Amino acid sequence: MASRLLLKTLSKRHRISSTPFPFLSKSSGSRSASTLVLAEHEGGSIKAQSLSAVVAASSIGENNSVSMLLAGSGSSLLKAAESAATCHPSLSQVLVADSDKFEYPLAEPWSKLVQLVQQQGGYSHVIATSGSFGKNILPRAAALLDISPVTDVVEIIGSHQFVRPIYAGNALCTVRYTGASPCMLTVRSTSFPVPPVSGDLKSDRAPISQVDLSTLDEDSIGKSRYIKLLSEDTERPDLGSAHIVVTGGRALKSAENFKLIEKLAEKLGAAVGATRAAVDAGFVPNELQVGQTGKIVAPELYLAFGVSGAIQHLAGMKDSKVIVAVNKDADAPIFQVADYGLVGDLFEVIPDLLEKLPEKKMST
């Protein structure tokens, strides 16, 4: 049976990994380092990706003071601030900008806010994650501050020395920031995992302060406006933080056939991903795209069905702990990075798996 081949006789592949520039030692960071983390919240909780930014900020130096900036309005913002105050032991304070102008995370008001807070606090570093939130806001804020940001950081070696991928993730480059303060970074959340939260953090609650918005320059606020949010209503875990991801490619041929991937994900309690080709073909919305121009994921298990393994896609998933690939083409590039591979027809393999696998409750 196809499932037995997949689960018992998959061919083992080996990946070679190396640490670039081993002669560079990790520095303790600047004594006066202070970092501002731009955080995203939803439903009164801090998003997991923003917690990864706090982890990254804490690695800049032992004496680094880490502040988290939240913006929004109403009770949801206040709940998020209370949650943030105990989210990580390295957090020194939570800054809250409460205004209707920040009800939605638009680049114009947020970048003006970052400029204002930087002028008030004089931070040495400003950090956001490399998701849609950070990529939307940080470049505009950097332009207002006349700073060149360092993007897609996967490792922090010192206060101004970082590692980031180049050539679609095929090489790692160590860079040193030599510009004026603040040093502005976007970090890949998958490279800075959040450790389990200790119950003792309740006693280490960071103070919450309101940002003085009286001098906020509103000249450029309002050039864009929020229309609506289109989001899939599902109980599946978030693609960016799921432990298991099931991805389908163009080989599924249609949106109707892509439901096989969704059914398998439901069985496994997994998130659903897709290649750019599948998204461009209209099989699924672009929020499910994994790759260089989509989401970067690093789950415990990554299942790829009908995925050829284009460089653009590999850049978004090759840091997964275990990669399993199913493809009819034995020479598909995906097999070069897969830990396990099966040359087979996904239209036979997936139904067989659906029959053999027990039901499993959704989990993140």
UniProtKB/TrEMBL annotation:
Residues at which FAD binds: 250, 275-276, 289-293, 306-313, 327
Alphabetical list of SMART domains matching this protein: ETF
CC cofactor: FAD
Main location per the UniProt record: mitochondrion
Domain Electron transfer flavoprotein alpha/beta-subunit N-terminal: 35-220
Cofactor: record remark: Binds 1 FAD per dimer.
Gene Ontology MF annotations: electron transfer activity; flavin adenine dinucleotide binding
GO cellular component: mitochondrial matrix
Family: Belongs to the ETF alpha-subunit/FixB family.
Quaternary data: Heterodimer of an alpha and a beta subunit.
Protein's name according to its UniProt entry: Electron transfer flavoprotein subunit alpha
Species lineage: Eukaryota, Viridiplantae, Streptophyta, Embryophyta, Tracheophyta
